[in-house]
Every structure is written in C-alpha cells, then in structure tokens.
Amino acid sequence: MAVKRYNNESISSLKGADRVRKRPGVIFGSDGLEGCEHSVFEILSNSIDEAREGYGNVIKITRFKDNSIEIEDYGRGIPVDYNKKEDKYNWELLFCELYAGGKYNTLNQQSYEYSLGLNGLGLCSTQYASEYMDVEIRRDGFIHKLHFEKGENIGGLTKEPFGRKNTGTKIKWKPDLEVFTDISIPYEYFADVLKKQAVVNAGVKFIFKYQNADGSFQESEFFYQNGISDYAAEILGEDYLTPVQSWSFETKVRDREDKPFYKLKATVSVAFSNKVCGAEYYHNSSFLEHGGATERAVKSAFVSQIDSYLKQNNKYTKNESKINFIDIEDSLVVIISSFSTMTSYENQTKKSITNKGIQDALTDMLKRNLEVYFIENPSDAEKIANQILINKHSREDAEKTRLNLKKKLTGSMDMASRVAKFVDCRSREVAERELFIVEGDSALGACKQARNPDFQAIIPIRGKILNCLKADYNRIFKSEIITDLIRVLGCGVEVKTSKAAKDLSSFNIDLLKWNKVILCTDADVDGFQIRTLLLTMLYRLTPKLIEMGKVFIAESPLYEITSKQETYFAYNEEEKDEFIRKIGNEKYIIQRSKGLGENEPDMMSFTTMDPKTRRLIKVMPESAEETAKMFDVLLGDDLSGRKEYIIANGHLYTDNLDIS
Fold first, then answer.
1. Residue 422 and which of 98, 141, 175, 571 are 20 to 30 A apart at CA?
2. CA–CA dist 580, 385 (Å, integer)
3. For position 658, what pLDDT does the model report?
4. Confidence (pLDDT) at 598
5. What is the distance, to the nearest Å, from the Cα of residue 399 to the centroid of all Cα atoms in its chain?
6. SS (H, E, C) 207-272
C-alpha cells in the first residue's frame, strides 16, 4: 500500500466553529451524552454567576421533547454592544471567540467577585456545538436578539426598545447530533444538577420544566433558603448522632510564596450519625465530583483532630493503631461550599480543584473549629469518639474475617483432594466447565455415570442445607456444606453487612472456575425445597453469579411415557397430553418420573446432562427485590407475612393434591 507523504503541506489547523465541532471532547470532556450535559452546565453557570452576585434570584430551565433547552435568568443581561477596547462587538467576542469573557479579572473584582465560569470557553463552545441557538437579552432598555446555526451567526445583532424594567438573558438552543453522539439528556441529570446548585446558592430558586414525549410538562422547583445547612439536615433526617454544625470563614490565600493573594470564603456543615453518611464538595457552585484540594483538607483535618482527641482522652487501648479516615467517613455528613477569586481546576469539566492555598486554609479552619466544638460540646465529642472507635474495630474485625474467609473459601482448581465426594472434570478451560450441584449420594452416582467427564463436574449436597436468609454469617460459614460449595465455586463471597465491615467481602468473579453452575434436584417437594435453599445461598452470598447469568436449574421431566416404539419424557401436563395424542391407539405405560438416583445413565444423560437434549432454566436477575421479598416471605422471619401469603396463594399448590 502506498504511504502518503508527510511534509510541510500536511500540517493544518482547525478554525472557527470546527475547533469545537470536530473535537468536542477537548472542551466538554466527551463527545457523548456526558459532554452534551456539560455544555448545558456551561450556559447554566453564567446565570448562576449573575444570581450569586445579587442580580436575580430565579432561574428557569426548560427541556423540550425535541432535546432543545432553554435557560432564562433575571440578571443584568449579557453586554453585546460595541467594545472599543477590543474593536469588536461583545456578542462576537462572547459567542464566537474562544477565551473571551468578563471573568478574567475576578482577582480585581471588576465584574464578578466569585465566578463559576473562568475560562471564557463555555458560551462560545456551546454555541459552536449547537444545531441552532437563539438569544434574547434584556439590557439598557432594549431587547437584543441573536440567531446562530451550526456555529455561524445568521442576521447579526438586532435590537428594539423594551418598555419594561426587568433585565436578563434567555438562551434556547439544540445540541447538534453532528457534534455529540447522544443529546437525549434525561430528567435525572437536570434534577441532580439543579438540586446541587440550589444547595450551594442559598435563596436562589431553580424552576425546571421537562417536556415529556406526549407534549405534557412536569415541573419541579429546587430551593434551599439556608443552603448547605438545610441540605445537611435533610440528609440526616432523624438519624443524627450530633446536630448540624455550620462554620464559615473568609480570608486571603496564595498557592505559592511568589504567587499573588486571592480571596477565599467557605461554609461548612458537619454532623455525625451512626446510620447515614455523605460528603459533597462544591467550589464556586461547581460540584467537585473528585474533590481534589477540598477532599484532601477534610481527610487531613478530621483524622488529625479526632486522633488528637482520642489520645488526649485515653480512648485508644495500649499499642492500638491510629484511626483511618474511613472510620470517620462511615459516620460523617459533611457539605463544603467554597468560593475563590482565583481557581485552578484539574480540567475544563471542573470536577476537581488543585489550589494548595485553598487546601491549607480549609485544613486549618476545620481543625480549629473541630477543636473548639469538642471543647464546648464534650457530650457530642464523646459520642463521636465512641462511634468512630466502633467503626474502627468493626473494620479491623471485618478485615481479619475477610482474610480468613479468603483463605478458607478460595483456592486452586484442584478441589478433589480437599472437598469430600467432589468429582472434578478434566478440562481446565473455565469457558466450558460445568458444575452440577446434586442432592445426595445416589444422585451423585447416577450423574457421575451420565456426565461427560471432559467438562462436567459434580458436587453432592450432604444433608439439609442451611437457610442462609435467616442465619447470621458466623453460622453460615461454620456450615461445612456451604463452605465446601463456595470453595468449589472458587470466587469467594459478597457479604452485605454494615458499612464499617464492608471489607468482609472477598468476591472476585475472575476466580470463578465454572461457566455454568447447574442446580440438579428431584421434581418433588423435597427437591424444590433443596433448590430454593441453594438459590437462597447463592442469592445472599454470590448474587453476582445470578446477575451474570451463571446459575441454571436442570429441568427434570415429570412423566416417562413408554410405548412399543418409543419412550417420551414430558416436562409438564401439556407435553404429556401431546405425547399421548401422538402415540394414538398404541398401548403405552405412563409413570411419574423417578428420582435422579433411580434413573438409568442413558436416560439421565438424555434428560439432564447432555447439552444437546437437556433443558436448562437460566436463573434471571430481573427482579432481585421481588426475589428477595419472596425468599423472605417463604423462608425468613416474617411469620405474619408468610401466613398471609399461604392464605392468599395456598390453593394454587393444594388444588391438585390427593388427600383422600
């Protein structure tokens, strides 16, 4: 194949709207739905900056069914007339020039003291990435209008007198599918973002209208009069160990000794609970998903100050290790909203800040306020210290248990020598290995003769399996039947317990030794019970196997119908009737199918083991919550619920019983 020359003429540059339209990921972080969502936030940010400066306390957001969006504020209105200094109209600078805006001089507080938008990219880049954009600006007694299509202005700036006094900006646009792969922003994104913005912009009301496919609108309002303190109280509800504490400060900081000072202000709301936890960080109203400097300040301050309190009050036992942040985090509700006149974001998507000055100032402020709080509220300090030590000891106990479980429940592929009566297969290829879990030694013998030893392994259930829904973990892991099963599976367990003991889980799907786990029980009451108990065990200890479609039930035939010519196996009443019609006038014998242990190897292979002729039912995870409820009703401690279920549904199981 001929290779094209790479020379001086090979170099080119993107110009105008193509700088965004052909590389949206550079500006928005992605060319997919996430990038489209970020473009919306860029426009919203401008309205929020106006409201925070005291210009308008209502912002309206509408998402239309064609995926177009409209945002209206009641701020000062974007300046769009002629700019002598730049020798251009401001609308050209703001809507058609990257790195143009009114927020570069926040250090000198010329237009905005604290601004969410900094880089002069959002408005222009969103316009460039739109199928169209319509702008209405109410300012200086005029209403100014602009129209753009695919990054190009159509018709210039028009303006006409506006008789009313209100000012503000309304922008409607449709993200372009030629730029983004997906523009169908869901209701949940808007609701999440607007709630967060209401939290950190106390007293600003966000009115959101979302148009459904049928043209109807659903409307929501997001408003927190007292901002983050109201939000922290909302998270806690009645589940608080200590009430919400709110601290604020304002100072000047710098990131390095040779750098200029800039203003920083922050508000912190803190509470402790033994039931709920959560940490959210915001800077200049932007939600810091990855935290950065703010999160590092919280970790440093809380560990340092609480560790100091524990030492001073002799709360540690002799030679006990120091607390970790995870011990605090499990009981901490902390919301921080900070603002600065200069900010270093990790990137344009503003999900993390890197300012060393902000980190150091927040650390000092948190340590100082925690120290005073503990001194002035000794009862709260005692509760907090005791709860954090409970978390620490739970974490340490869970880690020990997890390591013991991992050693006990996982191992090499060579299980035959370590699990009684387990019959392995020859293949080492996980993609073809099948594990049959059967009831009893008689079924083991029949299945062993009927299986394909190349890829089918068998483990029998010896005795009655424990009900894992009702038993605690200590009892479960003392059961030899269960631990043997988990060891043979090889993947460990997913233990759902308290937050403090979450490390107890030792599950690793990559260590699973089987492509299919097949439950093989008799088609009678005892078989159904054993199957249900096995499913309950898998549901509680290894739910991921069910979610990933690894668990199957081998369907056993109900009837064996024998004529002179053929033997038929019917799995239900309809199949039985169909076979009888097919046999016609020939004599035949019909009998209930035997238990697995009584079947001949050929029949066992045909009905249960052979992939070409057997019937497997995949255990589906579609309604895990409903499954859990049913397990609880049938096998749990809810006696009244079980009684009600039997009264309502018992006839379905007894109508066909012969009780004569």
1. 571
2. 75
3. 45
4. 67
5. 24
6. EEEEECCCCCEEEEEECCCCCHHHHHHHHHCCCCCCCCEEEEEEEEECCCCCCCCEEEEEEEEEEE
DSSP 436: E
- Burial (CB count <10 Å: 0-12, 13-18, 19+), residue 654: exposed
**610: Cβ contacts below 8 Å, ≥ 6 apart:** 452
pLDDT tens digits, one per residue of 438-463: 887 777 888 888 899 999 999 998 77
For residues 204 and 223, give the distance between their C-alpha atoms in angstroms, rounded to a whole number.
6
Query: Residue 478, Cβ neighbours under 10 Å: how many?
Result: 11
The predicted-structure confidence for 311-347, as pLDDT tens digits, reads as follows 999 999 999 999 999 999 999 999 999 999 888 887 6
List b or e across 540-561, with b for residues whose CB sees 16 or more CB atoms inside 10 angstroms.
bbbbebbeeebbbbbbbbbbbb
- Residue 629's CB is within 10 A of a number of other CB atoms, namely 14
Which of the 8 DSSP states describes residue 605? I
CB 53 within 8 A of CB 201: no
Span 260-287, average pLDDT: 93
Task: Say if CB 298 and CB 367 are below 8 A apart.
Answer: no
3-state SS, residue 62? strand
Give mean pLDDT, residues 464-482: 80
The answer to whether 442 and 450 are in contact (CB under 8 A) is no
Which one-letter amino acid corresponds to residue 2?
Answer: A
Cβ atoms within 10 Å, residue 330: 23
Amino acid letter for position 1: M
Predicted local confidence at residue 624, as pLDDT: 46
Closest residue by Cα to residue 337 from 221, 187, 230: 230
Q: How many CB atoms lie within 10 A of CB 180?
A: 24
Helix or strand (DSSP H, E) at 379:
helix 378-409
Would the pTM count as exceeding 0.85?
no
Is 69 in contact with 172 (CB distance < 8 Å)? yes
Q: Give, as one character, the DSSP assignment of residue 122.
A: H
Q: Is 221 exposed, middle or buried (0-12, 13-18, 19+ CB in 10 A)?
A: exposed
Q: How far is CA 389 from the centre of its chain?
A: 28
Q: Compute the Cα dihedral for 285, 291, 293, 297 and give only its sign.
A: positive
Task: Please enumerate in sequence order all residues whose Cβ is within 8 A of that of 392, keeping only pairs 6 or more positions apart, or say none.
Answer: 323, 324, 327
How many CA atoms within 13 Å lie on the side-chain side of 407? Answer: 5
- Predicted confidence at residue 324, as pLDDT, reads 94
What would the two tokens of residue 209 be?
Answer: 């209208």
Joined together, the tokens standing for residue 553 give 């039930």
Q: CA 546, CA 620: separation in Å to the nearest integer?
A: 7
Task: Report whether pLDDT(97) > 60.
Answer: yes
Q: In 106-222, where do the E strands start and end?
A: 130-139, 142-149, 152-153, 158-161, 168-175, 205-211, 217-222
C-alpha neighbours within 13 Å on the C-beta side of residue 556: 23
Q: Report the alpha-carbon angle 496-393-323, nearest 5.
A: 115
Distance of alpha carbon 242 from alpha carbon 274, whole angstroms: 10
Query: Tell me, what DSSP letter sits at residue 423?
Result: B
Beta bridge partners of 298: none
Among 87-96, 219-228, 415-424, the range scoring the smallest mean pLDDT is: 415-424
CA 48, 53, 55: angle at the middle one, nearest 5?
80
Residue pLDDT, tens place only, 17-68: 777 887 787 788 888 999 999 899 989 988 998 898 889 999 999 999 999 9
Closest by Cα among 302, 309, 297 to 328: 302
DSSP state of 419: S
- Is residue 70 classed as helix, strand or coil in its secondary structure? strand
pLDDT at 529: 80
